[in-house]
Amino acid sequence: MRQHSGIGVLDKAMSVLYAVADEPCSLGMLCTKTGLPRATAHRLAVGLEIHRLLTRDADGSWRPGPALSELAASANDTLVDAAGSILPRLREITGESVQLYRREGTVRVCVAAMEPPTGLRDTVLVGARLPMTAGSGAKVLLAWSDTATQRSVLAEAAFSERVLLEVRRRGWAQSVGEREQGVASVAAPVRDAGGNVVAAVSVSGPIDRMGRRPGARWAADLLAAADALHKRL
Question: Which long-range contacts (CB under 8 A, 24 or more apart) does 67-71 make?
Fold first, then answer.
């Protein structure tokens, strides 16, 4: 669940930024995704565009702007810093897309990602907010989350509580065609210095390449990457 600051215009502006994180949005889509009146959504989007926090495609749709990357580059995030050293090697080993997710309430947020240089890929943009109801990364983050969050998500999830028990037992998760048709993935938990699960590192790609038992192929490499991240934290 997204936090609210109590500053109305700021919260509305943030809702516009989050709306375009997953996909470019026309004005109509912005209104649908944020619930804002058309005039308000347009005014905020134009203001964010002036500050380069949003930019427009050739068809007029808004997407994240360059200022977001510039601000992110100056942020000090030890997890993301560690990912910069670990994810390139994981991508090299697997030849697939790799991601790092954090949980925020009942959604997961991609905080780092790298794509293979060629071929079909499962592109997840940094900043993308994905549901916790499907996918290997979601299973990992939910398996070690609090009971209330688990109950809330499991009511609509593509997997059961028994699956989460299995994830905790073996230490990793896999999915085939859950989040997106034709895509498979494997994920492992990343722990901080205190042993708490703070993220999920994931590799994903077409089922044709990953196979229908992707864990058998890549789980060991995911666990090694997760351990390397843990040591850097």
Answer: 68/17, 68/127
| Both structure tokens of 38 | 């058309």
For residue 201, give the H/E element and its range. strand 197-206
Longest dimension (CA), the chain: 52
**Mean pLDDT of the 94-104 span:** 93
Percentage helix, strand, coil for the chain under 3-state DSSP, each rounded to 5? 45, 20, 35
| Residue 202, both tokens | 């994931």
* DSSP character at residue 25: B
Domains and CATH numbers, the chain: 8-71 (1.10.10.10), 76-232 (3.30.450.40)
**What are the tens digits of pLDDT across the range 33-52?**
999 999 999 999 999 999 99
Could you give the 3-state DSSP secondary structure of residue 183?
Answer: strand
CA atoms of 123 and 145, how far apart (whole Å):
26
Q: How far apart are CA 72 and CA 82, in angstroms?
A: 15
